[in-house]
C-alpha cells in the first residue's frame, strides 16, 4: 500500500524542506473484505449503523462548510474595519493617494467574495483579500510613523487594534477549518466509515494552505 499523500519528487532540495499540505483529491475506497465485514455488521445492527454513518458524514461536511463560512465572515469584518480605519485617518492621509486606491480595491474584492458562485471561489477571493489586508496594515503602520497626530488618535488606535484582533480570529478560524477537514478526511479513509463513504461517492476535502507568495517577506512600502 502506497502513501495517501506523497510530497516527494525524488530530488533533494539544497535549501532544506518546507512542509506543505498535499491537497490531492482522494476518493473513498473499500476492499472486498471491508465490504463483506461491513455488510455483516449492518445486518447485525438491523441497518441502523449505516444510517448513523451517513448522518455523521453529512454532519461533518456541514461542520466544514460552517467553518469556511466563518472565515469569510471574519474577513468581511476585517475589511470593514480597515475601511473605517482609513476613513477615520483620511484627514491625516489626504496626500497618500495609494492608500485610498487600495481601499477601493478591497471594497471590490469583498463584493466579489460575497457574490461568488461557489464556496471554493469565495474562499479563494477571501484568502487573497485577507493577505492584501495584512500587507496593507503593515504599510499603513509604516506610513503612520510620519504622522504623530495620527498615531495619537484614539479612534485610529482602536480600529488598528480591532484589525489585529480580527487577523488572529481569522487564523483561529482557519485552524478550526483544517481540524474539521482532517477529521473528515481521516474518517472516509478509515474502516468502517470508508465503506459508507465510498457508497456516497465522497472524496477528501481541501485543506487551507498559504500561497507561495505568503512565504515572502511582506513589503512595507506603498505602491
TrEMBL record:
The keyword Membrane belongs to this UniProt entry's keyword annotation: yes
Residue numbers spanned by region Disordered: 1-21
GO cellular component terms, A-Z: membrane
Protein origin, superkingdom: Bacteria
Recorded topology in the membrane: Single-pass membrane protein
SUPFAM superfamilies: LemA-like
Subcellular localization(s) per the UniProt record: Membrane
Record-annotated membrane-spanning stretches: 36-53
UniProt cross-references to Gene3D superfamilies, sorted A to Z: LemA-like domain
The keyword 4Fe-4S is annotated on this UniProt entry: no
Keywords: Membrane, Transmembrane, Transmembrane helix
Biased composition (Polar residues): 1-13
Entry similarity comment: Belongs to the LemA family.
Protein name from the UniProt record: LemA family protein
Organism, as annotated: Mycoplasmopsis gallinarum
